[in-house]
Amino acid sequence: MFVSRLLDFQKTRYARFMNHRVPSNCRYQPTEYEHAANCATHAFWILPSILGSSILYILSDDQWETISAWIYGFGLSSLFIVSTIFHTISWKKRHLRTVEHCLHMFDRMVIYFFIAASYAPWLNLRELGPWASHMRWIIWIMASVGTVYVFFFHERSFGGRDAGAGMREQGRAAMTCFFHMVAPNGKQKAPGVSPKPQTPDSELAAPRPG
């Protein structure tokens, strides 16, 4: 009881920064402070995400690394760009109900694809087991299913589950491949890339002919 009172944000002097919790079938209405924070925190990371993606592309050594850099960079940059646009419209142009509704759906959809894109470097650049290798395409099917779910059940629950539950399940399913990433010899390698031949220690120690 004491802990619940202690964590009750509405009974503190900072209550103006957050509205009361709404029922599950209603949409939460952020305060002006929350709108400003949402716009600032998402817009701040647009440029770093683009620069970081460019660095990953420049440092790529082969085709798989280049593809993974493009996928991850596009997913990360799209996440912050779309979210910034949505929160800006929701804050300053909230009278545009149709535009705000579409952007809110797009914001949810891009999160699914960002989750899939964030696993692309791991799934493309590591030797996977026979079962975990299928996650390379299963993760994108899950993102597509989440997109369809948002399109038909946006801001509604289906079977007691919302979009957030789908995102958590998508991330949890992809994490199962973590335990199958190590090859039988204990080394990790990119698919299709042959390991470099190892030089025996005896040859390294042998003196060169004069």
Mean pLDDT: 75
Strand-residue fraction? under 5%
Q: How many structural domains can be distinguished in the coordinates? A: 1
For the secondary structure, the number of strands is 0
Query: How would you describe the shape?
Result: globular
One letter per element, helices H and strands E, the order comes to HHHHHHHH
Instruction: Determine the number of helices (DSSP H or I, runs of at least 4 residues).
Output: 8
Q: What structural category characterises the helix and strand content?
A: mainly alpha
Oligomer: single chain
Radius of gyration: 23 Å
Report how far apart the termini are: 85 Å
Helix content: 55-70%
Low-pLDDT segments, ≥5 res:
182-196
Largest sheet: none
List the helices and strands and how they pair.
Blueprint: H1 2-6, H2 32-43, H3 46-58, H4 63-92, H5 97-125, H6 135-153, H7 163-175, H8 201-205
Helix pairs in contact: 2-4, 3-4, 4-5, 5-6, 5-7, 6-7
Describe this protein's structure.
The structure is a single chain. The protein is mostly helical and 210 residues long. It has one domain. Helix content is 60%, strand content 0%. The protein is built from 8 helices and no strands. α6 (135-153) runs antiparallel to α7 (163-175). The longest helix is centred in the middle third of the chain and has 30 residues, at 63-92. The protein is globular. The termini are far apart.
Describe the structure concisely.
The protein has helices at 2-6, 32-43, 46-58, 63-92, 97-125, 135-153, 163-175, 201-205. It is mostly helical and 210 residues long. It is globular and about 50 Å long.
